[in-house]
Amino acid sequence: MRVLIVNTSERTGGAALAAHRLMDALNNCGVKAKMLVRDKETDNITVAALPHQSRQQLHFLWERWCIFSHLHFSKRHLFEVDIANSGADITKTDEFREADVIHLHWVNQGMLSLKGIEKILQSGKPVMWTMHDIWPATAICHLTLDCRNFEQACSHCRYLPGGGGPNDLSAKVWRKKRRLVEKYNIAFVACSQWLAGEAKASGLLKGQWIQSIPNPIDTRIFRKQNKMECRRLLHLPTDKKLILFVSQRVTNANKGMDYLITACHKLAATSPDLAAGGAVVVMGGHAEEMASKFDLPVYPLGYINNQQQAAQVYSACDVFVLPSLSENLPNTIMEAMACGVPCVGFNVGGIPEEIDHQKNGYVARYRDADDLGKGIKWVLSSPDYEQLGLNATHKVAANYSQQSVANQYIKLYNKVLADSKRKI
User: Fold this and answer.
1) Residue 423: pLDDT band by 50, 70, 90 thresholds?
2) Contacts of 154 (CB under 8 A, 6+ apart)
3) Using CB atoms within 10 A as the burial measure, which of 12, 209, 264, 408 is most buried?
């Protein structure tokens, strides 16, 4: 069986990491998997780049320009929506022709247009689409927060000037997407049970086949290592309890850094002994901008793209905190747990599917900095701290290992292939 995994980027972003890990997992289980990307970042021979890179850049720029004009030339929300009006025709590539199954992942920002997706469907090859956010189930947005318009039909979009209207850009794109999914069968996969529930509630995907399969992780890379040795390698203090925050861009408001800052302020005020022996480690772009905002010492590590080094960072710390306001099934929590680190996060999206409350971490009340701080204190002060870490690694091994996830996908590939042959 030959599977082609299609994603905008090879390595940048959570979806790219998850797609790349799935490719590795499938190849390790005997499936011939390749990736097709617009942005190739390594010399990996199993990853192919789209041809004519200058043309691909034009697709990206044209889509952004169209969105920019609909936003009345405001940069606000410029990268929070996608309209898929321009993109590559991957059906002309050798990788597409060789594949038995086409597996779409995050294909936005000029990678694929809706017309390009229709050409893929017209080929007759079975198509699966792993949802890394809600965009395939809405008109234009990747993040709905408390908007439920997508349960009926998108319009009056909050991302558009003045809140849009009955026939705004979101309504027009919704109609195009709806015609597509009514005409063709796509097997949708959500990376979390929460996202699968949201997709099933969507008026756009009504009648479509939707299943939940988590992202895989390579536990040979992300594994528990000697804490003190990792700290020495990373030049981190060996005499403090280290609180870790990780994000591709730590200034992204959706990742909830402000809640962590507030929680640490309150910890410093209410638990001075704990605060005196604690410090914050920040891994991600713009990490150095956070140093002055905490009452605790801060160690900014910047963006780390090397998985082995990232695993050392996790292993060096005592608790991982992700106070995101919206999440699917965050890779970072999975990575931390695989390294034996208890996690703290808000009760939102797929986070409570990963963190079992007070068993391998702490699930805090949504947007509650007080409870977030309580969770951090609970983990760091737990008399069963070692057991929390063991529970975390066991959870990952049982649910998110390469073999566990690959086997679920292989069953699904076989099913869509069999269904496709019956229709011929």
Assistant:
1) low
2) 138, 139, 140, 170, 171, 173, 174, 204
3) 264
